[in-house]
Design brief:
Elements lengths: L1 E12 L3 E12 L3 E5 L6 H8 L7 E6 L2 E2 L5 H7 E4 L12 H11 L4 H14 L15 H13 L5 E5 L7 H17 L3 E6 L5 H4 L2 E6 L2 E7 H5 L2 H6 L6 H11 L10 H14 L5
Parallel strand pairs: 3-8, 3-9, 6-7, 7-8
Antiparallel strand pairs: 1-2, 1-4, 4-5, 9-10
């Protein structure tokens, strides 16, 4: 069963401006899905439907096979952990510890259970040293980790991140990607994230939806999406740098296998060099 599904979602802003049109996406249990699109494609608007922040004009959202409604929003919001693009939109407590404890406290857990969940989240996100710090004194990368820690403390079934690398420097992006990959590998949790950074997608996603002007214009595996240059062009997206490198080498007659992640291209190049002593 899919943990999350939207069926033909259509949403209009005031004045009748269509922001989403017949958008259908699915996230399988323990799956990792990317919403890829340029700024203004409708990614954030779609995500706000997942836990009832906004309501579609038509269509429906299903979580664990049940339609999201006013009556089950509390349960839905326990299952869907939403991390906003700007962590300042969800971090508000006087200290990091109190902020992470807010969600478990609202779930009515015992003091012992709350303490255990906060401790686990701090440890998992590697922010134990920030526990007593005021959140507004933290760096952008630290705030992002704290925001994720606060969501994970509620033990959601799916983690939804809107532009997770927004505002981070290259080191912060690399650290966050590593963290998210460890989360997917070590916890029984699904992941959906939105981004316009094509180079981020192969590192995390198994399946990709491409959005443009409020519609899904393409979907498929990472390999299928990034092999479709015309689709990326239509969505106003570039080809990932590693894909450009491999394609350029292939066009020059180098028999290198296609690759989309750094590790894959590195291994392909190493294998190529190993097979040709003259290239060492």
């Amino acid at each position: 069963m899919n943990i999350l599904e939207t069926r033909a979602i259509t949403y209009e802003y005031r004045g009748g401006i269509t922001a989403l049109h017949n958008v259908s996406v699915t996230v399988p249990r323990n799956g990792c899905v990317a919403l890829l699109g340029s700024n203004g494609a409708g990614k954030s608007t779609l995500m706000k439907h997942f836990n009832g922040i906004i309501t579609a004009k038509s269509g429906e959202v299903l979580v664990d096979g049940e339609r999201v409604s006013k009556e089950n929003l509390r349960v839905v919001r326990q299952k869907i952990g939403m991390v906003f693009q700007n962590p300042d939109d969800q971090i508000f407590a006087p200290t990091v510890w109190e902020d992470i404890a807010f969600g478990p406290t609202n779930l009515g857990l015992s003091p012992e259970a709350i303490q255990e969940r906060v401790h686990q989240s701090l440890q998992l996100l590697e922010v134990e040293h920030l526990a007593d710090r005021p959140p507004h004194h933290l760096s952008g990368g630290e705030k992002k980790r704290v925001a994720i820690a606060g969501i994970l403390a509620m033990n959601p079934d799916i983690l939804v991140l809107d532009e997770p690398t927004s505002g981070l420097d290259p080191v912060g992006i690399r650290e966050l990607v590593g963290l998210l990959r460890r989360l997917v590998q070590t916890r029984q949790i699904s992941l959906m994230f939105s981004t316009h950074h094509v180079d981020l997608v192969p590192d995390l996603a198994r399946y990709v939806y491409v959005m443009h002007a409020g519609e899904v214009i393409g979907q498929g595996t990472v390999e299928e999406i990034f092999a479709d240059v015309s689709l990326l062009s239509r969505a106003r997206l570039d080809v990932p740098i590693l894909t450009r490198l491999v394609t350029s080498l292939q066009n020059r007659g180098v028999p290198i296998k296609a690759g989309y992640r750094f590790e894959d291209v590195e291994q392909a190049l190493y294998s190529l060099i190993s097979d040709k002593p003259e290239m060492r």
